[in-house]
Amino acid sequence: MARVIFITGGARSGKSRLAEELALGFGAPLGYVATGGAGDGEMAERIARHRARRGDQWTTVEEPRALAGVLAGIDGRFNAVLVDCVTLWLSNLLFAGDDSPLILDAVEKLTKHFPLLTTPLIIVSNEVGLGIVPENRLARQFRDLAGEANELIAAAADEVYVTFSGLPLKLKG
């Protein structure tokens, strides 16, 4: 069974940078599973910055919805795999028409796959539950879904970190 590391935190808190640093500790080759797509120019620019920062020791696999399947397919090909990020994956499933119980089933399927992995896995997710209660139903549904998904993944992970203002805090492991 491979080690599973879960990193959460707010927007621009340093969680992706921490995840990349931890992955580099396993040595190249490294796999990067990107769950977000370039839906607009600003997102395309973000993706380009992330790719440039990672460099050529990383192989990127783009997968917006079938996360457990892609992880099974690339297991053993890399020294470590980084998934960035869970909340974009959840958004993709939500906007594809899946409802919360189906999405949480997908999260549980993902966590049940952890013990089968041979490659260390680092998973990044946004913490979205620290702010005010959103005013609309979809935003509340997403906030609740992300919180439940993060709980499931954190419970199944070997190590858990949260980042605040660029500083990591180890919570588990």
Automatic annotation (TrEMBL):
What GO molecular-function term can you cite, just one? Answer: GTP binding
Give GO terms for biological process.
Answer: cobalamin biosynthetic process
Which Pfam families does the record cross-reference, listed alphabetically? CobU
EC number, UniProt record: 2.7.1.156, 2.7.7.62
Locate the active site.
Answer: 50 (gmp-histidine intermediate)
Instruction: Provide the alphabetized UniProt keywords.
Output: ATP-binding, Cobalamin biosynthesis, GTP-binding, Kinase, Nucleotide-binding, Transferase
Q: Where does GTP bind?
A: 9-16, 34-36, 51-54, 62, 84
Answer yes or no on keyword Methyltransferase.
Answer: no
Q: Which InterPro entries match?
A: CobU/CobP, P-loop_NTPase
What is the protein name for this chain? Adenosylcobinamide kinase
Q: Which organism is it from?
A: Geobacter pickeringii
Biological classification of the source: Bacteria, Pseudomonadati, Thermodesulfobacteriota, Desulfuromonadia, Geobacterales
